[in-house]
Every structure is written in structure tokens, then in C-alpha cells.
Design a protein that fits this description.
DNA helicase IV; single chain; six-stranded mixed beta sheet; alpha/beta; Rossmann fold; 4 domains; binds adenosine-5'-triphosphate; DNA binding; P-loop_NTPase; nucleotide-binding; ATP-binding; six-stranded parallel beta sheet
């Protein structure tokens, strides 16, 4: 071995040993913190009883210590992943949480990656160094330092012989080349500059992140959630952050990323699960879902609600006080007009309708008795008696019933007559027929925005609940004022310099603390409350959402503090977006910002070349993202007759699996074909499952439709029957583009008919 090499290895071993010593200090600190927090939690749990204030404080502490322990456990693996050496000789280690040295004026021992001081770790380049001389990426396994890669940003220093480096890139490429596990991993140690700018963008307003496949949109969205919670914790922990994904499989795929970053207070949901109490398990055709997703469904639902506000035929009678009473069409029409004019939701306007009707009926009874003989009190008495008469209230209920969204929607979709009335304007006969279904059919994801819309149109007559809540809030405020008073009396305020309790805490804030101190996080409370509004909403695969789904999300985020990530070239849902402008202009006009991601971290060049051909055939001016890697594995295409698919595909799957040992493979095909040959394939391949449950992604091979594979990635992909995918809908090209860009290593295509021209060009 040459002397120079021996020297380099010695230096490296010494550096690793030094880093290990530093890591030992950090982990020692982590252990101390954990022990201390565990002890505090134990002490809190041991205390019991006491006045309500003490119990509330205990609840707050229990939650705080439990959250802290969860965070401390989450950061164990890869706690410290980098180091920055600055011009003045200062060094900082960067990691998943911040640690400080209490014995040394709280000097930082480890910088949280989200702290402003850690930012150069992601942004500094040789051209814009920001005082950084060297960026070091540490490679660790649990608590052990295995290796490091240095990136020297000071070009002078680099020229003097140190490792000039692409170390950041090497660490990144090693990560990108690694086998996939079926769960998304965080990218905290290798976030790239264009991603960092998005992650740390300000919280206000709507930010759209457009980026091709594999550009890290999902990763960026999740890291942004963690960053916002760190930076705006006070604001966001009250209202919570909502992350919306396209389906439960995807949510499971991304589910571990935030906990691994130490964040637990985020609600991950699909739009289909945003209506508390509804589990949307039903399925329906893409066409029906598309119709339900149209904005014009608001007119349909408005008409359906109005259809429940009836006036009687003339001559309808009810018996009151053994005499017939007429529900007059004229009176009901006037009452209905008045109620509608209030513009209140149906169930709240109902009260106005009833008041008007009781007034008209009271006068009818009064006329019968001789109105001139009655005074105000007599009239009130008649009114009260009428309200207590079941026959009368039942007749009025018929005309303007109190309704819930679920009953109304179920009755609407299962009644040809009601549907015909409500859809007369916006839909034609065919579209109407597509909506019709038997009563009691399970809810589908596309029903959920309709239910949410109806909940708004119907409203809830919650006058009593509101009065109770207001009373409770008044009591809490009075109690908090009392607590403050006592705390102030306890304080010795002799020292003018000291802050008084009331300087930092007012009674309303304290009352709010008591109110929000139950065992639930904001995210958990939000999941139970349809009208909850979030501090920030992040939408992944945002291009897939229908106009009706956007209405739901906008209602959940009146502040419009939102991050929307997606790719309009990957839109598969017929109700999905064609442009961001089209989606957003109804809500924020042109007041939204666009950020673009341009580098593809997933798909190697060889595969991206095939996908780029497909993109170029789409009616879009989007550029394909630039792949950072190439693998040398050329995509292949093979023709297999349709009858032989079940017998031949297993060989292709086994061959591909052998090429990616320990890896994950997906077989992607159109839904009809999957239903037809999926079971036979799954039987022939012991390693393969049909992807119905979310943990199926962990199996070596999974059979999926393209729609189900959206947002996911695999080491190898076999796309079956692209010609059917292409022909299936006018978004066929988009679907092909999605399918082709799921693989990190290998792509194979199996077709029975001719390859669509858009693919054939790549395999000539
Ligand atoms: N800076 C990074 N460091 C390491 N890995 C990264 C980085 N950025 C992205 N990746 C990886 O690249 C892959 C693609 O990322 P991601 O799924 O977030 O892309 P996407 O833009 O959402 O893709 P799609 O549009 O296809 O859903 C993931 O494996 C992700 O971990």
C-alpha cells in the first residue's frame, strides 16, 4: 500500500474515532433527557386527586412528557447526520433534534435540522458558501459511526489537497440506490437546495409545488410539515396540520416519515375520511366519480335541499281541537319564501318556516273563535297549543323536515324522481342514470365531498349546544380569572424587574389552555370534528382532487395557509386537475405561488428516457425532470399472447426479482385485467400478493392498478398491457407516464397487442 494511502486511512480512522466520541456525548445526553422525562412522567402519573386545576395541569404535563418521550425515541436512529465547519473554525453538528449543554451556557451540542443555523447544511455551495468550509455527512448505524463523506466548499482549501468533493452527492446516490422497503424513508440528511427552499418557505398563502415524478414532492411535503410545526409550534399545535393523500395505501406508505422526524401531531387523511363517522368503502365507476366531483353538483345538492321545502296542495287538513284546520298553500308559500330569504341553512331556516306557519294557523283558529274577542295572550296560548299538537307538527315536518346529510344523499341517489328534479339543469339523462343506485349502497370516496357540502347546506340546529358551550366557556373564563388572581397573590411582586403572571398570561389564554388540555392532540380533535379548521393543510397528489373535494379542503382551511404538491402531467382521475390555475382561481384568484422541482431522484435516466417520450405526446409544456442517476439497466419490452399471460408472467416476475435481491417489485396493469388474471398470478407466485391491504407493499411482489401505484415506488416494475392502459381513457397517456416512473432500478413491459406508438418509439 502506498504511504499516501496509509496516511489517508489513518486520518480517516482518527476522524471516525473523533466523531464517535462526539456521538457518545450526544447519545449520553439523549439518554439523560430520556431518563429525566420518564421520571417526570412517572411523578406526574403518581400524583392523583386534587382540585380541577391540578388535574388539568397534570393532563397537560402527561401529554407533554409523553410527546417528548415519543420524540426522543423517534430520533434514536441517525440522530446526528452531519457537521458544518465554518470559516472561523467553529463547527456544528446537525441532527434530528436540538441538544444543548446546560453546563456551558446552553451552547448547542446538536443543531436541529430545522433551526435557521442549520440551513447552510442544505444550501451552501462552493459558489455560495455562506461561511461553510466543509460539509460532512456522517454514516451511522444506530449509535456507531461507520464512515463519513466530506464536501469541501472552500475551493482554495480544496486546491491545497483536501478531498474535493462530491461527498454530498455520494451519500445521496447511495441512499437513492438502496433497496426499497415498502415504506417511505425520511430524507433529512440529504435534502437538496431546491427542496430546502420549499420546505422552509413562509407559512402564509397557497404554495403550489409542481414537479415531475420522483422529484421528492411527497418527501418535501412531509418535511415541510415537520419544519412548520417546529417553527410555528405555538400557532400550529392548537389548530393542527392536515396532510391529505390520495388513498389509504399511500398514507400507510408515508406514515412513518413524520414520526421518524419526531412529529406526531399531524392528521394524515384522505378526502374520503374527512367526514367523521363515515368510512367510504364503496366503489363506483370512474365516470360516476367524475360526475360527483363536478362543481355543478353544488347546484344539484342545492336543488335537492330545496326539493325538501314543499308547499301543500290546497285542501290538506289536520285536526286541531277536534276541528279541521287547513294547511293553506298560500300561507306555506309565503312562509317558505320568508324562510329561504334568511339564507340560513335548511335546518336553521326551518324554524322560521314553522314560526310563520304557526302564526298563520293561530290566526285561522282565532278567526274561528272570533278574533275580535281575543287578546295577545290568547293568541300566544293558541300558538303554544298548536305547537304541542302532534298532528300539526307532523304535517309541518312533512313540508319542511329536519334532515341529515346522509339520509338526504341516500334518498336522492336512490330515487329516480328526486334525482330528476335535482339534476334537471346540469346533467343529461345518461349522467343522471350514472348516479342512480340502490338505497343503502355503501358510501364511496366521491360521496364524502357531497355529504360535506350537504352538511353545510343543511346546517345543524345546534342552538342548545351552542348555548351550553357558551355557558361553559364563560365558566372557564371566570375560573381562569380566579386562578390568575390567586397566582398573582402568591407572587412576591417586590422585584420590579420580574414579569408578573398577568404580563405573560391573560385569563382568556389560560382558559383556552384548560380547554385544549384534554388528552387529545389538535390532530385527534380535528379528526372528530367536521367543522375543524386547520392551521395549515398540505395536499399530496393534489392534481387528483375533484372540484368538490377542493371545496371540502378550502372549508377546512379558511386562512388558505396551504401547500399543494402534485404534477398535472400525472393526473389520472377524470375529475382531476388540468392546470393549477383552474383549481385555484375560484378560491384565491391568482394569489398563489408556484415552486418547481426539476430533479428526479427516483427514476434512472434509462427509464426516464422512455417516460419522457410519453410526456412529449401529452398536451402540456412540462419538461421531464432530470434524473440524477443511471443504472445501466435498459428497460425491455416483450410480447406475450393474452392467453399465455398467466403462465408466462410468473417467469418474468421471478427473473426480475432475482435482479433486485431483497427488493420490491410491482406488477402494474389495468383494473379489469387485474381482476381477471390477478388471482391466478398470485397463486402461481408465492412471493406475490394482490395489493388490497396497505401492508401488502412490504411483500416482495405486489400486483396493483396504476391508480393504486400513484405516489409509490418500487425497485422493479413490470407494466402489463400498456396498450389497454393507453386506450382506456383520455388520460391514458398520463396513466402510462405514472406507471413508467415508479421504478428505481428496472422496468419491463409485457404486451399482447401492439405497443402504443408513444412507447414503440423507445423499443424500436
Ligand atoms: N433529497 C433527497 N435525498 C434522498 N432521497 C430523496 C431526496 N429527494 C427525493 N428522494 C427520494 O426520491 C424518491 C421520490 O420521492 P417522492 O416520492 O417524494 O417523489 P414525488 O415527486 O412525490 O414522486 P411522484 O410524483 O412520482 O409521486 C423517494 O424515494 C425519496 O425518498
Amino acid at each position: 500500500m502506498s504511504d499516501a494511502r496509509v496516511d489517508r486511512e489513518t486520518v480517516r480512522a482518527e476522524e471516525i474515532a473523533a466523531e464517535q466520541r462526539y456521538l457518545n456525548v450526544l447519545y449520553g445526553k439523549l439518554d439523560d433527557l430520556r431518563a429525566e422525562t420518564t421520571q417526570r412522567l412517572k411523578d406526574t402519573l403518581r400524583d392523583s386527586g386534587g382540585p380541577p386545576q391540578a388535574r388539568t395541569e397534570r393532563d397537560i404535563s402527561t401529554r407533554m412528557y409523553t410527546d417528548k418521550l415519543t420524540q426522543l425515541s423517534a430520533v434514536e436512529h441517525g440522530m446526528c447526520f452531519g457537521r458544518l465547519d465554518l470559516d472561523g473554525g467553529e463547527t456544528f453538528h446537525v441532527g434530528r433534534l436540538g441538544l444543548f449543554d446546560e453546563d456551558n451556557e446552553y451552547e448547542p451540542l446538536l443543531l436541529d435540522w430545522r433551526a435557521p443555523a442549520a440551513r447552510p447544511f442544505y444550501l451552501a455551495t462552493a459558489a455560495a458558501r455562506d461561511d461553510v468550509q466543509r460539509r460532512r455527512h456522517l454514516k451511522t448505524s444506530w449509535r456507531k459511526v461507520l464512515d463519513y463523506e466530506d464536501e469541501i466548499l472552500d475551493l482554495d482549501a480544496a486546491e491545497q489537497g483536501s478531498d474535493l468533493g462530491l461527498a454530498g452527492e455520494a451519500t445521496l446516490l447511495a441512499r437513492l440506490d438502496a433497496r426499497r422497503t415498502g415504506e417511505m424513508q425520511d430524507i433529512v440528511s440529504t435534502i437538496q437546495a431546491e427542496q430546502d427552499r420549499i420546505i422552509r418557505a413562509g407559512m402564509n398563502g397557497v404554495l403550489v409545488v409542481q414537479g415531475g415524478p420522483g422529484t421528492g414532492k411527497t418527501a418535501v411535503a412531509l418535511h415541510r410539515a415537520a419544519y412548520l410545526l417546529y417553527t410555528f409550534r405555538e400557532q400550529l399545535s392548537k389548530r393542527g396540520v392536515l396532510v391529505v393523500g390520495p388513498n389509504p395505501t399511500f398514507l400507510r406508505y408515508i406514515g412513518q416519515v413524520l414520526p421518524s422526524l419526531g412529529e406526531t401531531g399531524v392528521l394524515l387523511s384522505t378526502v374520503g375520511s374527512l367526514y367523521p363517522g363515515i368510512v367510504a368503502t364503496g366503489t363506483e365507476s370512474a365516470r360516476t366519480a367524475e360526475i360527483k366531483g363536478r362543481q355543478s353538483m353544488t347546484d344539484v345538492l342545492t336543488a335537492a335541499v330545496r326539493d325538501r321545502q314543499q308547499v301543500p296542495r290546497d285542501g290538506v287538513e289536520v285536526t286541531f281541537d277536534r276541528e279541521p284546520l287547513h294547511l293553506r298553500r298560500k300561507d306555506a308559500t309565503a312562509a317558505r319564501t320568508r324562510a329561504r330569504r334568511t339564507r340560513r341553512p335548511h335546518n336553521l331556516a326551518r324554524r322560521v318556516f314553522q314560526d310563520e306557519m304557526f302564526r298563520a294557523l293561530t290566526l285561522q283558529v282565532a278567526d274561528r273563535l272570533g278574533r275580535e274577542l281575543l287578546d295577545r295572550r290568547d293568541l300566544d296560548e293558541i300558538n303554544t297549543e298548536l305547537r304541542a299538537e302532534p298532528a300539526v307538527t307532523a304535517a309541518l315536518d312533512e313540508l319542511w323536515p329536519e334532515m341529515g346529510p346522509q339520509v338526504l344523499l341516500d334518498e336522492l341517489l336512490s330515487s329516480p324522481d328526486r334525482l330528476a328534479t335535482a339534476t334537471a339543469k346540469p346533467l343529461d339523462d345518461d349522467e343522471r342514470d350514472a348516479l342512480l343506485r340502490p338505497a343503502g349502497t355503501p358510501w364511496t370516496p366521491a360521496d364524502v365531498p357531497l355529504l360535506d357540502e350537504l352538511a353545510e347546506l343543511l346546517g345543524e340546529d345546534d342552538a342548545q349546544q351552542r348555548a351550553d358551550r357558551e355557558r361553559q366557556e364563560r365558566e372557564e373564563l371566570a375560573y381562569a380569572q380566579g386562578v390568575l388572581h390567586i397566582m398573582e397573590q402568591d407572587e412576591e411582586i417586590a422585584d420590579e424587574e420580574r414579569l408578573r403572571v398577568s404580563d405573560v398570561l391573560d385569563a382568556e389564554l389560560l382558559a383556552e389552555r384548560f380547554r385544549t388540555s384534554s388528552d387529545l392532540t389538535a390532530a385527534e380533535r380535528a379528526a372528530e370534528d367536521r367543522t375543524w379548521t386547520f392551521g395549515h393543510v398540505i395536499v399530496d397528489e393534489a392534481q387528483e382532487l375533484s372540484e368538490m373535494a377542493w371545496r371540502v379542503l378550502m372549508r377546512r382551511c379558511p386562512s388558505r395557509s396551504m401547500t399543494l404538491v402534485g404534477d398535472v402531467a400525472q393526473t389520472g382521475a377524470p375529475a382531476g386537475a388540468r392546470s393549477w390555475d383552474e383549481v385555484l382561481s375560484p378560491y384565491v384568484q391568482d394569489r398563489w405561488n408556484l415552486a418547481e422541482l426539476t430533479v428526479n431522484y427516483r427514476t434512472p435516466t434509462e427509464i426516464m428516457d422512455v417516460a419522457a417520450e410519453v410526456l412529449s405526446d401529452m398536451d402540456t409544456d412540462l419538461e421531464p425532470p432530470q434524473s440524477v442517476r443511471s443504472t445501466g439497466n435498459l428497460p425491455w419490452a416483450q410480447q406475450i399472447s393474452r392467453e399465455d399471460l398467466v403462465s408466462e408472467l410468473p417467469h418474468a416476475v421471478s427473473d426480475e426479482l432475482a435482479e433486485v435481491p431483497e427488493g420490491r417489485l410491482a406488477v402494474l396493469m389495468p383494473p379489469d385485467l387485474l381482476a381477471e388474471i390477478g388471482p391466478g398470478l398470485a397463486e402461481a407466485l408465492p412471493d406475490a400478493v394482490i395489493g388490497t391491504r396497505s401492508d401488502d407493499l412490504e411483500s416482495p411482489a405486489v400486483l396493483l392498478t396504476i391508480d393504486e401505484a400513484k405516489g409509490l415506488e418500487f425497485d422493479a416494475v413490470l407494466l402489463v398491457q400498456p396498450e389497454e392502459v393507453f386506450a382506456a381513457s383520455d388520460r391514458g397517456l398520463n396513466d402510462l407516464y405514472v406507471a413508467l416512473t415508479r421504478a428505481t432500478q428496472r422496468l419491463g413491459i409485457v404486451h399482447s397487442g401492439d405497443l402504443p406508438a408513444t412507447l414503440a418509439r423507445s423499443f424500436e
